[in-house]
Design goal:
2 strands; flat; mainly alpha; single chain; two-stranded antiparallel sheet
């Protein structure tokens, strides 16, 4: 987008002298509202505080949109580069790269499981949680980036250990062979009994 220059400089006025950006090929009309809460074509220092706030919100939203576009373009270029790199590999190099990727994925999964279990132990505050850990799918407690979602773990503990500090009565470890096959099955079973009672 084109930006018009303002006559005063920051050194002269002590404040940023920025003029509202407009679409290329259009001339801003002094004081014309953009529909975003600020007048188009008016230097920022001549706007009211509410108009300045609206202007900077508008600029921030525009900047976020631009950053998202740039991130998408970067991801596309990385994928294209990886594809070109892979196309230039021999069969043995591809096999090595695949083995490396599989090993990295397995290591990440092992580490994530250990991190989830560590978060569980921290939330347990000395309670015996061995039976609970054996029935928990660690992937359910990860966020989109693969990090432990501490809020999910905390809410799980609030459900498992209501005020009493002891596990919900009736839960038995799936490893013991009795009880539900998982914590999710146990919760679903309790909900269905509560609904039918």
């Amino acid at each position: 987008m084109d930006e018009e220059e303002n006559v005063g400089t920051e050194a002269e006025t002590g404040t940023p002298t920025e003029t509202v950006q407009t679409k290329p090929g259009t001339t801003p009309v002094q004081g014309q509202s953009t529909g975003s809460g600020f007048p188009e074509g008016t230097p920022v220092e001549q706007m009211t505080l509410d108009q300045q706030a609206a202007y900077w919100r508008f600029q921030a939203k525009k900047d976020v949109g631009l950053r998202k576009e740039q991130a998408n373009e970067l991801a596309r270029l990385k994928a294209e580069l990886e594809e070109r790199r892979r196309n230039g590999m021999s069969d043995s190099e591809k096999a090595i790269a695949d083995a490396y990727a599989e090993g990295a994925a397995a290591a990440a999964e092992t580490l994530q499981t250990k991190l989830v279990h560590a978060e569980f132990r921290a939330q347990a505050k000395g309670r015996d949680i061995g039976p609970i850990l054996s029935g928990v799918d660690p992937k359910r407690f990860l966020d989109q980036t693969g990090d432990v979602d501490q809020e999910k773990v905390a809410s799980f503990f609030k459900a498992m250990y209501p005020d009493s500090g002891s596990p919900v009565a009736g839960f038995k470890s799936p490893a013991s062979g009795s009880g539900p096959s998982s914590i999710s099955a146990y919760i679903a079973e309790k909900r269905s009994r509560g609904a039918s009672a």
